[in-house]
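Researcher: Here's the sequence for the chain we discussed earlier.
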Amino acid sequence: MFKEDPVFKALPESTGSLVTAIRKGTIALPDFQRDFVWEPRRTVELLKSIISRYPAGTLLTWTQNDDLAFGHRYFQGVAQPERRPNRLVLDGQQRLTSIYQALTGTGDHRFFIRVWPFIDRQAGTLRALSDVDLDDAIFSHDSRARSRFNPSNIEWQIKNATFPVSEYDRLRPWFKKLARSIETDRDASDELEELLNQFRDSYLQPLESYAFPVVDLPASTPLVAVCNIFETLNRSGKELTPFDLLTAKFYPQKVHMRDLWEDALNRYPLIGEFGVEAYSLLQAVSLRVRGTAQRADVLNKLTAQEVDIHWDATIAGMSDSLDYLKSQCGVVSSAWLPYGMILVPMAAVFAEITDLRSKARIEVMEKLGHFYWCSVFSENYDQGANSQAGADYRALRDWLFEEEPSRIPEAVENFDLVDSGLLLARANRKALFRGVMTLLVRSGAKDFRSAQAISSTAASTLDHIRVFPKTAIQEADFEDGDLRDPDLILNRILVDKETKREIRDRHFSEYSKGQESASQKKLSEVLESHLIEAGEGGGLMGRSYETFLRERLSLLVDLIEEATGRSIVYESE
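Model: Thanks. This is the structure I predict for it:
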């Protein structure tokens, strides 16, 4: 089957034809490719591989046509030709730029080859390539730097038998001049010139004829496939995101995504503060347009006109969502956001919320809060987040804005959090852990230093520790052996980094007794703001881990029910 219809064919193309295509502009780079970053030594290594005829990797290009015209830019050092490229390079930019600059003498560095390492002058023969010290034979020179010698000077070149790589196809006159500068006898000069020409034919020919295997993707290749292929080939380089692809796709239609993105970051600082990805905004636009956040739908169906229409409302909705989570839900920084993907449906619906009258907006915002907390405590975005975002957006529009909604978000309708599951939940369940901690911040958890409510100003110093250290738990007796776990969420408390260093592995009761009387009272108030019974009869001061966990669970359950607007299933009793 493969022989009859191979999926991708790798056909050889010579360095000479590739350099010509780059110079003419028929091969260019997609706008999303990173800049040329190779150091000169890597270009030298590539030249050594080409001269040695060693494999130097496959190139990947993508055919363009009238129906597929991506934003592009020409290779560094190429004058702007008046034509549109018919192929874009997806993999091989660094190698092709290196070759182009070395063979055309463009860029900041020039590359040179010393003749004598290739020639045995005493025997009057060429050395075998295995005997040539290529590290000594090929070198680079920074054309911008001041130097005690100038290898671009023809007299210096002849004196040192060193020529620019960019002159590889115009060396006959240079060889003649070199031979006559060394041999005064005409016959000896002719013999040396012939030997130099043999050197060119044997060792420099690959600079023109070396063939790279080139896989050319047809213009009909789906964008999702292009994205996946690029990511597979470019693991160690710049990641190609759907935003990059759409940036290039929309560029010819005068919708400049990078400019829109920079403007969004400037207008709405919270988007940058929380590290929201540009692609998330395009997903939110896609939700507004056709109710889907799937990558294939965003890449293949979203149009430049749709982005132009919905962009402003979407970025405003994203900023409003972040502001709501930060001010009303205890998410003081991106490090404490349970799910980044939940922002997508929230941003998509927020523009419609801001258009509501005051009373209606209050009611809708309460329901949106219930949706958020139900989703967090149901861990609804742990898997299939793109599908979940689409389903939630469609349900939210109905549930939030219709008097008699036919759909309710899944996390709200099927909320079934069991208290025993929460009791045994471990801190490695990141979304649930962050949800519990931010819910405590929302309810007024206090900072250990200031005894004031934790706010975003303390976010950079916010950390967490175990309330009961491992040693205290190992020494304790348990009725329920499943609770002998130091890494339960209920055994975590938010502290600043300085307090964490002071407590270290001590039990909180020991830390408390080391404080002055006034400080002990303040500490008790802080602990109770984190739902920890700090009195002498409580599990903390009584050093009963099991009692401590159940006390805290009972208080936390009340907070969760209030935040979600739903009841929890009680099994732990």
